[in-house]
Design brief:
- The protein is an alpha+beta fold and 453 residues long.
- The chain is 24% helix and 23% strand.
- Strands 10, 11, 12, 13, 14, 15, 16, 17 and 18 form a nine-stranded antiparallel β-sheet that branches.
- Strand 5 (94-97) and strand 6 form a beta hairpin.
């Protein structure tokens, strides 16, 4: 029996899920997530089906000093690993307690699964713009959702976690039990273990007013400036974003959009439809509207507001949290997503503030709460244009450096250096996170895709 065969046989005897190596059927499907750029190349994959599987797999890797990581949907994947990959997509259970207005969410559940479980009870999670994103991974990076200005970061609404730490222990973590880990897990980016389940608050939302207004940038060149000024007047019940991209002139793209650089102004409003129409009226007056999808919709259809691509693909992206939007920098954003850009680019600006700026009752690792906007860039990439995209992204964000506070991990779709990773947190918090991680993982075996460890 070879060493690999012996290794797989021993690990398989400890877990209920499949243990796969590169020659096994299903290996490629298991290692590849939504983000298709540089997929993991693990020596072994553990397709976990339970918390016990995760605990056994982590203990097995640690005992052999094998680097390891975890993946649910793989949207935030940045750096491939060659050690052990633990996949959690089969752990997708959701249990709703409508009396307490909470949900228990397993490691691999998507927001769509949480939304569907909560909706029959007149409740909704503080989910993001893309329903097929993993709920746990989204939450441990903070979570800036569709109702963020009204309710704050998703991580602020976690009651407790079950987490397997890098020492192989299963811990039940709350503000009263292991408060230091509770602080780190809410916004720290998953550096301190594998969350196998979390209890989150739900909100009493069944419907909202939302959708998009689309404008031709050639006709309304100041669309970002006008939207930015409008955001300074709205209340916390309204969360919005602006996205700019140039549509290819090809079959399959709606005729009014083909070949045009288009600004999407996206809105999610917690009030009534009549109030929503009134508060968004100034946006309709910006100029000729190419398309208008604003209206009342059931919360389970909230993913239509951003209408993001559902097909897996390779991409790279970056972001900055900024104090303000310098008017002189905004034309550069529309140009960066224009037809003359060196690589296809989607530029986004999200309005922050409101409840996002308020400190939670229990402190967390989420940084830069005082940020007013999040500026992001994202490009589909191939081997020939990944470096071109990186240079273009750096140049696009450069005019915002002087007003930048740092980054958000949930929008960093490339590996961050140690310095860049530290910049995703408030001063001193990265050092605190590193100390906690070292105590649990002295050999630095858990890899999160950012920094040197």
């Amino acid at each position: 029996m070879t060493d690999t065969t012996s290794f797989v046989a021993e690990l398989s005897s400890r877990v209920r899920g499949r243990v796969l190596t590169a020659d096994a059927d299903g290996y490629d499907v298991e290692r590849t997530g939504f983000q298709r750029w540089e997929a993991h190349r693990p020596a072994v994959v553990v397709a976990a089906t339970s918390t016990d599987d995760v605990r056994e797999a982590v203990g097995f890797a640690v005992a052999r000093r094998m680097p390891w990581t975890v993946q649910a949907t793989g949207h935030g994947h940045t750096t491939p690993i060659e050690g052990m990959l633990i996949t959690t997509r089969r752990m997708n259970g959701v249990r709703v307690d409508p009396v307490r207005r909470v949900a228990w969410v397993e490691a691999g559940a998507t927001w769509r699964e949480v939304i569907d479980a909560a909706a029959p009870h007149g409740l909704a999670p503080l989910s993001g713009s893309f329903p097929d994103l993993g709920a746990v991974a989204y939450t441990v990076t903070g979570g800036v959702g569709l109702l963020a200005r009204r309710h704050g970061f998703t991580s602020d609404h976690v009651h407790r976690f079950d987490v397997v730490t890098p020492d192989g222990r299963l811990r039940h973590v709350s503000e009263h039990s292991e408060p230091e880990l509770f602080w780190a897990l809410r916004g720290g980016g998953g550096r301190v273990g594998v969350v196998t389940g979390m209890e989150i608050e739900l909100v009493c939302v069944t419907r909202l007013f939302g959708g998009s207004l689309l404008f031709d940038v050639a006709q309304v060149s100041d669309v970002l400036e006008v939207w930015g000024s409008w955001t300074g007047e709205v209340d916390d019940d309204l969360t919005s974003a602006a996205t700019v991209l140039t549509y290819p002139d090809v079959a399959g793209v709606p005729e009014p959009l083909r070949g045009r650089s288009v600004a999407h102004l996206r809105v999610a409003y917690c009030g009534s439809a009549d109030e929503g129409r009134a508060v968004t009226r100034p946006l309709r007056e910006i100029g000729p509207v190419l398309a208008d999808t604003l209206g009342e919709l059931p919360y389970p259809e909230s993913g239509s507001i951003f209408d993001e691509p559902e097909e897996p693909h390779p991409y790279r992206g970056d972001n900055l949290v900024v104090r303000e939007l310098p008017p002189e920098a905004l034309p550069g954003l529309t140009a960066a997503a224009g037809p003359d850009a060196p690589v296809f680019t989607v530029v986004g600006v999200r309005h922050l503030g409101g409840a996002l700026a308020r400190s939670p009752r229990v402190p967390s690792a989420v940084g830069h709460r005082s940020g007013s906007y999040l500026v992001s860039v994202l490009s589909p990439v191939s081997e020939t244009d990944e470096r071109v995209a990186r240079r273009h992204h750096d140049a696009t964000l450069a005019p915002f450096i002087e007003v930048a506070l740092g980054r958000r991990l949930g929008f960093a779709f490339r590996p961050l250096s140690d310095e860049e990773l530290a910049g995703a947190f408030d001063p001193g918090d990265d050092a605190r996170l590193r100390r906690i991680a070292r105590e649990l993982d002295p050999h630095g075996l858990l890899r999160i895709g950012h920094g040197s460890r």
